[in-house]
Each structure stands twice: as structure tokens, then as C-alpha cells.
Amino acid sequence: MGSNLKRDQIPPKQAENWRRNFAEEQKNTFNLNIPQIILQKETYKKLAGENENRLRIYLGLETDKVDGKYVLCAFAVSAFLLGSGDVYVDYETPVYKLGVKNENYADRSKQVIESIRSYRKWRLGELDSESETAAFRKYIFPNAYLLTKYELHEIFNVQGRPEAQVEFGVTKTMNILIWPEAKENRAFDDEGEVFDYGIPCPPVCDEGSIYNS
């Protein structure tokens, strides 16, 4: 299956793993309602333009709660390459809210900004600081996503699909932590110095090493 993957496509089992991890986070740190988030082909065409600019999706919160929970929402803008580096800059307009039907919010930019700021307050644990897990969100959930050209080109231009659905997954990788002092049993909330300079293998490996055979 892996050899047949299209560019930027992930294996189904990897996607399943990410989705299962996200479902676990919904029981702990991610206490938001998530409606369907849809990117329509017409919206993609308007944002990508003739140059097939990349799209950036910002996360926000609705103003009203549902069943006592904040509701996640998403906005899409066009992002263009600045110079010859790898820096992508947003076009401020148009900006589309991604729901079952996409809406142009170009004339409601203040509302979009407030929605995004509300999400970031939630992400930083400021909206419900009484939650035991609120302080961990900023290490798990990003503010926005810069999409590649290829995944959307494949869906809309090659396959001719009328829409694409946005869902979420959580990756889990065991990291290495380096402490300057040894303890047999270390508390989770140990506030001593700790470092993380380890790059995991894969992806960075010595394929010729006898220890990697």
C-alpha cells in the first residue's frame, strides 16, 4: 500500500492511529464540540487562484456554546510565498468560514479575528483555567495549518471532487528527555532542568550503521 500512496497521502493505518489518539484527547484536553468542517471546491479555486497558492486554515471558536461546550470553527485564507525562502504570507482577504456551506467573511474580518483569539485563549487554558488539563493544550493543539499544494490539487483538480472534509488527528512519538541529575523515581511535575536535543530515527538515521541493520 505504501508504494501506491499519492504525494502527501498518509497510510490508512497511520490515519487511524492519529484519529484514535485524537479521540483519547477528546476525553482529556480537547473539550470542544466539532461540527463538520468542509472546504468546497469553489472556495479552493478562489483562494488558490491561477498560481495555486497554498491555503492556511485558522482555528476559532463560535460565540455561543452548545451543551455547555465551546464550538470549534475554521477559517481559510490564501498564503503566498514571500521571496525565495520558505515563508508564506497570508492575504487578508478573502477569508472563508468553512462549514457545510462556505461563507466569505471578508466584510466580517473583526469577527474572524475575535473568533481566532477566543480559540487561542482556550488553547492557552485561559477560558477554563480550573480544568486540570487546560495547561497542556498549547503543547498539543496548534493555532493554524498551512496546507500543501499537492493534497488539494489531487482532491479538486485530479479527482474532481466537489468538497474536502477537514478532520483532526494527534501524533504520538516517544521523546527523549535529558536531566542533569539522576533520580530513581521522578515526579511528573518535577521542575528541575530538562533538555530535549534528540532527533529520532526515523527519520534521521545512519542506514549504513551496523546498529541500524
The overall pLDDT, averaged over residues, is 93
Radius of gyration: 20 Å
- Low-pLDDT residue spans: none
Counted up, domains total 1
Largest sheet: 6 strands, antiparallel
Give the topology string: H per helix, E per strand.
HEHEEEEEHEHE
Give the helices and strands, then pairings.
Layout: H1 12-26, E1 37-40, H2 41-48, E2 54-61, E3 72-82, E4 87-90, E5 96-97, E6 103-104, H3 109-123, E7 144-146, H4 149-158, E8 163-166
Antiparallel strand pairs: 1-8, 2-3, 2-7, 3-4, 3-5, 5-6
Structure description:
The protein has one domain. The mean pLDDT is 93. It has helices at residues 12-26, 41-48, 109-123, 149-158, and strands at residues 37-40, 54-61, 72-82, 87-90, 96-97, 103-104, 144-146, 163-166. It is globular and about 60 Å long. It contains four helices and eight strands, in the order αβαβββββαβαβ. With 213 residues, it is of the alpha+beta class. Helix content is 23%, strand content 18%.
List the main descriptive attributes of the protein structure presented here.
213 residues; alpha+beta; 6-stranded antiparallel sheet; two-stranded antiparallel sheet; 4 helices; 8 strands; 23% helix; globular
Task: Give a brief outline of the structure.
The chain has 213 residues and is α+β, with helices and mostly antiparallel strands. The chain has helices spanning 12-26, 41-48, 109-123, 149-158; strands at residues 37-40, 54-61, 72-82, 87-90, 96-97, 103-104, 144-146, 163-166. It has one domain.
